[in-house]
Amino acid sequence: MKKNSLLTTSLLLGVISAVLAVAVFMVNSTTANIIAESEATKLNSYYESIFPDSEYEVIYDNKKDKDKSSNIISLATATKDGNVLGYLYLAYTTGYSSDVVSLIGINATDSKLVKVIVTKQTETPGLGTLATAPKFLDQFSDKSTDEELKAKDNITAITGATITSTAVVNSVNEALADFNTNYKK
Amino acid sequence: MENKMRKVTWSPFAHSGNSVNMAMLDVIISLIPVIIASVLFFRMGSVLVLLTTTASAVAFEYISRLVLKRYNSCQDLSAVVTGLILGLTLPPSTPLIIAVLGSLIAIVVVKQLFGGIGNNVFNPAAAARAFLLIAFSVPLTNWVNPMTSTYVDATTSATPLSLVKTVMMNIKTGDMEAARTAYSVIESNSWGLIKLLFTGEVAGSLGETSAIAIIIGLIYLIVKKRIHTEIVTSYVGSAFLVTVILSLVYDLGPLFPLISILAGSLLFGAVFMATDWVTSPMTKKGRIIFGIGLGVLTIVIRTFSNFPEGVVFSILIMNMVTPLIDRHTGNRIFGKVKVKSNEKK
Amino acid sequence: MKISDIFKDGIYRKNAILIMLLGMCPTLAVTTTLSNAIGMGISVIVILTLSNISISIMRKVIPAAVRIPAYIGIIAALVTIIEMLIHAYVPTLYVSLGIYLPLIVVNCIILERAESFASKNNILHSTIDGIAVGIGFTLAMLLIAFFRELLGTGAILGFTILPASTNMLIMILPPGAFLTLGIILGVMGHYSNKKKEELENE
């Protein structure tokens, strides 16, 4: 057998790729569940930081249902002693270099924003990421659901990170609009 | 050896008396009307900024030549010119430490690191102005109303350029109605605005406000044959043409192009920065291409970028293209027969 | 080949960023703060060492004609596997390093070391080369990030040193990366020219 014939070469490359593919598949199948679990606990800890000591119930999860028509990924309610405390929206908007996913907590009784947390992003480190830090996100707290938020207007955008700032603001507006039509008292 | 020398030239030589100092001195004289106008309108703010940039530019020139162990080049006055032009592109409320930093960038980074006078790729003042604008965008877009007597109490104000910019922003999004409404703010008093733009009684950078002062400087430079008029005319002319087209498409009325030319630092940049001998092309054809590029780029940057003004950026871009322009528009070398493209082989 | 030579080559004589000008994408993009540079540097050291080891092991199996696609496949699979493992078992590390890991696949230093070193040398030497080049890369990243963070945000490792009024936004934007790298390369060029002249004069 000639060592460098076309057939052996391509066969070898095919074997190498197959081995690599199997390796990636095996690692993925073992880690996928663990990742999903740890993400679920992480999301729960985010829920916890907005409405502490409550029970959370998922109303719908578009990610599980593979529904991509809306920017809202999932919606959960926080209940305590049988009373609905608030709604937790997980929504995404495309930022500068990635999808910026934010968790928006709305108080059910007085219809005000409780807190916004950015849960997932890969924006430019040191610039876009500034718009996902508490200093920027704290501006949303206690805003009424009636006012439409606008970067540069009632929300101060981060200099040099206008696109990421706007992405977060758009996610919040998306959640507010859904809350106002469906759940507002 | 001697024979060869004789072929090249004959002595004795006649000296025209022309030198780099003389040219620089003429540029400084041509800047005097602009400086007078800026001191008149912005008082202490103007004096402080101009003194700081000029003094620090000369100091940096001296220090960097000393450190680089080259001959002292302060007496050729080019550092004074760079300092003055940089100062005139800054707003009157610029913090002085930022002005010093601007001189540092202009003289040390842009000029001396590239080899000093005659070797810089970019116009030092334009490069430093662009650096400062991106580095300190807040203090450098803080405009002050003219004729306010004290430096500290000056009130901030919108510039005529920001009115033009609002129109441009709506052109960018393609919203014809909004562009029209934005323009109606200007239209209501367009002749008054044009009058103010000519005298210079508007908010803006120190040297860019008064069109009359700039034109006086331009006339002096033309009379003294210090600049090539084709850069100025093709720059202003092409910018005018582009805005005429925009104004026809968006139905903005006949005065919009004129206001666009007069607002912002377009005239100042065209007369004092684009005509820099070192960073502009060598042939007439090249200079016309250079000017057209500047005009089109300025309006494009004004329309599509987030920055209010496009003059310094377009000057930097065209500076970068200058070697290419020179290569394709170079004069025929004396005695060399022109080779036709189909004869090349 | 001496082990000390491999170290000297990797860290300064053939520094990946400052001498060979490789891996410009992470150099320009991730040097906005020192902590980012450290995160990227550690990720590169780990991946580079592992990819050097695996390619050195497989160097006799991979046919020469298709070595580049094979290397790319190995590197990409390695990075993906490591990313998934970290994500699953060390989630805290994933939060801080996760965004840099996928970037490493396209880092040409990894491919360059695979092609020019690991495919020709034994496993021990390839391992050391991976560590050395990774350290050289990290040090150069730290040098650039130090100036950019200090001048751009007035802080070092997040501790504010300079007042906010002197923060130059341009330094943490892309132009700042080019300016810093250019000036560092210029200074280095100046000194290496001087050295050359001295050597020639002797």
Relevant terms:
A: 185 residues; 2 domains; five-stranded antiparallel beta sheet; 3 helices; globular; B: 345 residues; mainly alpha
Strand numbers in spatial order across the main sheet of chain C: 1-2
Main structural class of chain A: alpha+beta
Structural class of chain C: mainly alpha
> Order of helices and strands of chain C, N to C?
HHHHHHHHEEHH
H/E element order of chain A? HEEEEEHH
Counting copies of identical and different chains, the oligomeric state is heterotrimer
Approximate strand percentage of chain A: 15-25%
Summed up, the domain count of chain C is 1
Short description:
Chain A is α+β, with helices and mostly antiparallel strands. Chain A contains three helices and five strands.
Report on this structure:
The complex is a heterotrimer of chains A (185), B (345) and C (202). In chain A, strand 4 and strand 5 (113-120) form a beta hairpin. Chain A is globular, with a radius of gyration of 22 Å. Chain A has 2 domains: 1-50; 52-182, no CATH class. Chain A has 3 helices and 5 strands, in the order H-E-E-E-E-E-H-H. In chain A, 38% of the residues lie in helices and 24% in strands. Chain B has 345 residues and is mainly α. Chain B folds into 2 domains: 20-141, no CATH class; 160-329, no CATH class. Chain B is 63% helix and 0% strand. Chain B is built from 15 helices and no strands. With 202 residues, chain C is mainly α. Chain C has one domain (3-148). In chain C, strands 1-2 form a two-stranded antiparallel sheet. In chain C, a hairpin with a 2-residue loop joins strand 1 (155-156) and strand 2. In chain C, helix 1 runs parallel beside helix 8, helix 3 (34-57) packs across helix 4 (67-89) and helix 4 crosses helix 7. Chains A and C meet through helix 1 of A and helix 4 and helix 8 of C.
